[in-house]
Amino acid sequence: MSTEANRPLAGKVALVTGSARRIGRESALLLAREGAHVIVHAKSSRDEIEAVAAEIRAQGGRASTALADITDEAQAQGLVDEIVAARGRLDILVNNAAIRRETPFAEISLAAWREINSVIVEGAFLVTRAAIPHMVRHGFGRIITIGGVSAHSGVFHRVHVATAKAALVGFTKALAVEFGGHGITANLVVPGRIGGNRSATSGAGGAFPGGGHLLVGHEGEPRNVAEFVRILALPAGSFTSGQTIHVNGGMYLP
């Protein structure tokens, strides 16, 4: 862990939704390493988020934990309100929470369609809406949302997920335009095939046309994606906003 003098996010507060594991966990670890006080969040996985927070503290970082169902308007607002009450601010928001299903289009129920969209789109909306006033008040904010390559490449049996992830492109651009004058940036980081993903819940393997060929010859790791989250939160990322950044080993070339 860096010393306080060279930790550029010292004094900042970051919330990473869905940070019990994988990309969310790695993002939380890296933001804490740069000096941010990180709130590790999950809907219900108390033991997992406490383990992530303990790992951050063991490395000399600062972390708290929070449980909330971000698809519930009151809980999403309460999550942010509690962070600001305890920490005085919320500077960095990583919208990572998501669920993924693999179902042939004709078999997708309306309830399943709404479930996917409620977490991926409405969850990001509700938490961001709660966080924005505090960022505006401090004249600083970083909104970093995790997208999905399926929204750009097409995908088998995942129309609901691809649609929800595509909505995040417009969400990010509109936030960047509306709040850029307040010192707030908004960007979308889009992972490709990340090692360890299950084919039914991820962007891996045969779910993509042609199997998602990787030009670099290997799958990525959660850390590869989290590194871009870290960069966008740092001063080095201050001139980047409204962008969709693909981290996919060359499986999709925009």
Describe this structure in words.
The structure is a single chain. This protein has 254 residues and is of the alpha/beta class. It has helices at 22-33, 46-58, 73-87, 110-138, 150-153, 159-179, 222-233; strands at residues 13-16, 37-42, 62-67, 92-95, 141-146, 184-191, 244-247. The chain has 7 helices and 7 strands; from the N terminus they run βαβαβαβαβααβαβ. Strands 3-2-1-4-5-6-7 form a 7-stranded parallel sheet, with helices on both faces. The termini are far apart. Residues 197-205 have low confidence and may be disordered.
Helix residue percentage:
40-55%
Shape: globular
Would you tell me the structural class of the helices and strands? alpha/beta
* Residue windows where pLDDT falls under 50 for at least 5 positions: 197-205
What is the makeup of the main sheet? 7 strands, parallel
Q: What is the rounded distance between the termini?
A: 36 Å
Arrangement of strands in the largest sheet: 3-2-1-4-5-6-7
Averaging pLDDT over every residue, what do you get?
93
Radius of gyration: 17 Å
- Strand % is 5-15%
* Structure annotation, total helices: 7
Question: What kind of oligomer do you see?
Answer: single chain
Note the run of SSEs as H and E.
Answer: EHEHEHEHEHHEHE
